């Protein structure tokens, strides 16, 4: 049976009016399990206008009361953890333990936002001049927008909405049309936690909805996560309209393996970070860079049996499964095409996952794991973000060559180095031009009280996601300079004021 999904407007499920829908698949079977309504510009404008009305009262609610909504929300997410994880897995296809991680890493940002009053309390200078005090306050922007990708249906909406709302904004959230149900459920939980209706609107849609958000003058800021071309497009259009924008894009994350690294641990890390979630993570390691021919040969020996042992299957098959299907048939076919392009370009396909088929799930979007050795930087499989279970190995002769490879790559989301040498690790962390670095740690997604953000073509705009940066992004600073005239000199002053 195909579910008809809805929007979430003013605290209620609202049926789409456009007549246009997008199919949500069960990626394990290939069947359509739901239809997402695709909002028109008019529906978007209406949701934004309603959000603006709700925002005034929410901004006037004191920060501690707003934080209490986050406290109750966190408790409800914990209460419903299993159900939320199941919702993620149902539409995305990732395994249940991985889906729990998706919810958990979002929950941690909600927990950080319980401390929003501390983040919002501003700065004060007593006696900046004779009888003159200055203070800066952080005020909400008004209505802000979140536009999120399919691959973390819980975590990324939570990264967007928790700081935005706890700072006193209203948010119009447009989740991925491919996995919209988790965001809709989170909105219901927020209502149960006491969020006033209208402060979070979840609107579903595609480019038409996104463009309506970008063109709406009420929207003050846009937080986007998705692929690089769309991130760059949204950043450009939002900035041209005078909005704040932070747009996080795609990635090609490298892991350097030094000759002194523990190769068993490096191989374990590569298999988990390369193939977990079918490679559909912006922090997936897609390029292994062993230094020296001997390291490379030994790494291949360690990797091949581990990759061949990987169990691919539906999340319903239980704890045995390492990763599930990719998101659509189009994604599966694109991955197969890219693997073929690697073969055609002369890379060595050591493990070939293309003919993978699972009995009973022949129409599912499963892709077996592939591993290429001797990939070169000019090949398409190196230049493109494959976003699938494909690991490439690029051999480097020296540490400097490996470092330069990472630095020359246009993406700069995450990277890692495996080594036993603290000096090399320190040099790498200092010199690499990538936003998040792991040392003997393959997927260095920072904890919620730090911040998340890539460099280069992995992010457009200013400030990172979550942590203290999120409160800077979702607020604007107003600075007051004040004095009281009792006992203060008479007469006007015409020179630019210096604080004597
Ligand atoms: P996507 O760019 O296709 O879609 C992201 C969002 O943009 C969705 O809500 C979608 O509806 C909307 N969108 C798509 N096409 C649009 C268009 N032409 N105009 C306006 N809006 C449009 O990304 P995806 O396939 O959902 O997600 C995977 C990508 O996201 C990967 O590239 C991955 O690396 C990246 N990602 C990045 C991060 C990060 O923090 N840097 C995190 C997760 C995922």
UniProtKB/TrEMBL annotation:
EC number from the UniProt entry: 1.2.1.27
A Gene Ontology biological process term: thymine catabolic process
Ranges that cross the membrane: none
Domain Aldehyde dehydrogenase: 18-480
Gene3D superfamilies: Aldehyde Dehydrogenase, Chain A, domain 1, Aldehyde Dehydrogenase, Chain A, domain 2
Keywords: NAD, Oxidoreductase
Database matches in Pfam families: Aldedh
One annotated GO molecular function: methylmalonate-semialdehyde dehydrogenase (acylating, NAD) activity
Protein name from the UniProt record: methylmalonate-semialdehyde dehydrogenase (CoA acylating)
Organism field: Palleronia sediminis
């Amino acid at each position: 049976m195909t579910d008809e999904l809805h929007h979430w407007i003013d605290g209620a499920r609202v049926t789409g009016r456009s007549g246009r829908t997008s199919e949500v698949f069960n990626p394990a079977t290939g069947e359509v399990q739901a239809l997402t309504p695709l909002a028109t510009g008019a529906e978007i404008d209406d949701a934004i206008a309603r959000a603006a009305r709700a925002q005034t009262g929410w901004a006037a609610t004191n920060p501690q009361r707003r934080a209490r909504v986050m406290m109750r929300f966190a408790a409800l997410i914990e209460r419903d953890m299993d159900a939320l994880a199941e919702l993620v897995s149902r539409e995305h296809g990732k395994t249940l333990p991985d889906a729990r991680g998706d919810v958990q890493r979002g929950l941690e940002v909600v927990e950080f936002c319980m401390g929003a009053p501390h983040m919002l309390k501003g700065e004060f200078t007593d006696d900046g001049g004779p009888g003159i005090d200055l203070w800066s306050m952080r005020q909400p922007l008004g209505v802000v927008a979140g536009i999120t990708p399919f691959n973390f249906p819980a975590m990324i909406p939570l990264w967007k909405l928790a700081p935005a709302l706890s700072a006193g904004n209203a948010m119009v959230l447009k989740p991925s049309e491919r996995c919209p149900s988790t965001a809709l459920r989170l909105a219901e939980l927020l209502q149960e936690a006491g969020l006033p209706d209208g402060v979070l609107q979840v609107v579903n849609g595609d480019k038409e909805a996104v463009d309506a958000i970008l063109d709406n003058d009420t929207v003050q800021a846009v937080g986007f996560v998705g692929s690089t071309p769309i991130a760059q497009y949204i950043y450009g259009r939002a900035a041209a309209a005078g909005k704040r924008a932070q747009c996080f894009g795609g990635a090609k994350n490298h892991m350097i393996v030094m000759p002194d690294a523990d190769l068993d641990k490096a191989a374990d890390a590569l298999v988990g970070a390369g193939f977990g979630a079918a490679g559909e993570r912006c922090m997936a390691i897609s390029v292994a860079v062993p230094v020296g021919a001997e390291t490379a040969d030994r790494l291949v020996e360690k990797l091949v049996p581990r990759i061949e042992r990987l169990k691919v299957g539906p999340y319903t098959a239980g704890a045995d499964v390492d990763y599930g299907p990719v998101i659509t048939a189009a994604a599966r076919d694109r991955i197969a095409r890219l693997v073929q392009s690697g073969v055609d370009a002369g890379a060595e396909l050591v493990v070939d996952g293309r003919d993978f088929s699972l009995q009973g799930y022949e129409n599912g979007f499963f892709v077996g794991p592939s591993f290429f050795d001797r990939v070169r930087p000019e090949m398409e499989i190196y230049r493109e973000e494959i976003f699938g279970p494909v690991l490439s190995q690029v051999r480097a002769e020296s540490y400097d060559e490996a470092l330069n490879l990472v630095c020359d790559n246009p993406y700069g989301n995450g990277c890692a180095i495996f080594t036993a040498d603290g000096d090399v690790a320190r040099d790498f962390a200092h010199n690499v031009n990538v936003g998040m670095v792991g040392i003997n740690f393959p997927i260095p997604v920072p904890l919620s009280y730090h911040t998340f953000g890539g460099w280069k073509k992995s992010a457009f705009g200013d400030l990172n996601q979550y942590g203290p940066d999120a409160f800077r992004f979702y607020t604007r600073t107003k600075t007051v300079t004040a004095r009281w005239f009792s006992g203060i000199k008479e007469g006007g002053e015409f020179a630019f004021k210096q604080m004597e």
